[in-house]
Specification:
Elements: E1 2-5, E2 8-11, E3 34-36, E4 39-41, E5 43-46, H1 50-53, E6 60-63, H2 71-80, E7 85-88, H3 97-109, E8 113-116, H4 122-131, E9 136-140, H5 147-153, E10 157-160, H6 166-176, E11 182-185, H7 190-199, E12 203-206, H8 211-232
Parallel strand pairs: 5-6, 5-12, 6-7, 7-8, 8-9, 9-10, 10-11, 11-12
Antiparallel strand pairs: 1-2, 3-4
Helix pairs in contact: 2-3, 3-4, 6-7
Length: 233
């Protein structure tokens, strides 16, 4: 099978058992990507589902979840993944020195980077920069965020998650900081993803369908097959 990538034919092999894996939107390939430790990352899947992680073609995983980060979860994700993982280490509910300790553990487990939430204090970002040697990704959720302060504190990558305002937030940051790496949520459509890339995002976070949604598709197909078989009897 041949695929188009950046204007060139790219040979590809899908196999029989993994030919229904989750594919990130093709338009993400238009992003410049961010090169980290020699790897060029354009797409990041926003998930902690190990079944999805093992069956998606994203360049990396951004594993952020709405609970206190736990080393056991990081260990499980790292064991399951066959691509780089950026691990959430808190900054919202989880604060202070615990964030630094979780980040250090994530680095020891093999994380490609750590992600901190929007409320994270700048002095914690500075302490992270002193402690770990993997990228610090700082989340921005509003056009009023103090991006300059984040960068001065030691942020390596800005992660924009502003829902429908994301393209405008990205555009404002890019105009002021032409060269900083920006990851951004792309939204639900190819149009919204393309708009975010055109605004200046280097890499796109994509939220894949849930395991339940994907399983529902299979079950619907199985029921249709059963109805066809019944009709032949």
């Amino acid at each position: 099978m041949m695929d188009m990538g950046e204007g060139k034919f790219v040979p590809s092999f899908d196999g029989n058992l993994r030919n229904h894996m989750v594919l990130v939107p093709q338009c993400i390939s238009k992003a410049s990507g961010i090169r980290i430790f020699g790897r060029r990352i354009k797409s990041l899947a926003f998930t902690t589902d190990v079944a999805i992680i093992r069956n998606i073609n994203a360049d990396a995983i951004i594993a952020v979840y709405p609970f206190t980060p736990q080393p056991a979860i990081t260990h499980g994700l790292m064991a399951a993944a066959d691509m780089p993982i950026f691990v959430g280490v808190g900054g919202g509910v989880t604060r202070g020195p615990r964030v630094v300790a979780l980040a250090q553990n994530a680095e020891f487990e093999g994380a490609f980077g750590v992600v901190v939430n929007a409320p994270t204090e700048n002095d914690i970002i500075t302490e992270l920069k002193r402690t770990i040697d993997i990228p610090i990704v700082v989340t921005v959720v509003s056009e009023y965020a103090d991006v300059e302060g984040r960068l001065e504190a030691g942020a390596d990558i800005i992660n924009v998650s502003g829902a429908g305002k994301t393209p405008n937030i990205v555009r404002g940051i890019r105009e002021k900081y032409p060269n900083i790496p920006i990851i951004a949520t792309g939204g639900p459509t190819e149009e919204s993803i393309s708009e975010t890339i055109d605004a200046g995002a280097n890499a796109i976070t994509y939220t894949p369908p849930s395991n339940g949604e994907l399983f529902a598709i299979n079950m619907r197909r199985y029921r249709e097959q059963a109805e066809k078989l019944k009709a032949k009897l």
